[in-house]
Specification:
This protein is mainly α and about 150 residues long. It contains 4 helices and no strands. α2 runs antiparallel to α3 and α2 runs antiparallel to α4.
Length: about 150
């Protein structure tokens, strides 16, 4: 607004005042468009991160439940067969628990890395913001050129 007020004082003719009004509208529209683009990029980023967190948590919860169930099954089997099989039932239980842990660890390693996803989403947001900035600068430059042409003509 301060810049607009300075320009208002320099506008002498009706043509200059009209050009200044057009410039003000163009600047305000460009600022609003850039802000909307930033807000959209930020909202998309937040939605993507939230979705990645939910998916990661869901996958981890399922893997933990599988580990718990497999471990409990191994223990229950060992308890049930221990009176007849003795030490071999305990050895089998240890092997079953180790296999369950190995399966769990393997499935965790195969999960997508959330840090990599977030980095990708950050890069997408950054690119969207850069595109908005570029468009904003182009519009501002065009508006300045138009305003200067009117003020220099008179």
């Amino acid at each position: 607004e301060e810049t607009f007020n300075k320009l208002d004082s320099k506008a002498q003719t009706a043509q200059q005042k009209a050009a200044l009004d057009t410039y003000k509208q163009t600047v305000k529209a460009a600022v609003a468009e850039r802000r909307a683009a930033y807000d959209a990029a930020r909202a998309k980023f937040k939605q993507q991160v939230d979705q990645a967190l939910v998916e990661t948590k869901t996958a981890a919860d399922a893997q933990i439940a599988t580990l718990k169930n497999s471990t409990q099954t191994a223990i229950n089997t060992a308890v049930a067969s221990c009176p007849t099989e003795g030490k071999s039932a305990i050895d089998k239980m240890k092997l079953d628990i180790k296999a369950a842990k190995d399966t769990f660890n393997s499935s965790r390693k195969n999960d997508s890395k959330i840090k990599d996803l977030i980095k990708q989403y950050q890069n997408e947001r950054k690119a969207a913001n850069q595109a908005a900035n570029k468009l904003f600068k182009e519009k501002m430059q065009a508006a300045k050129v138009e305003l200067k042409s009117v003020f220099s003509e008179i």
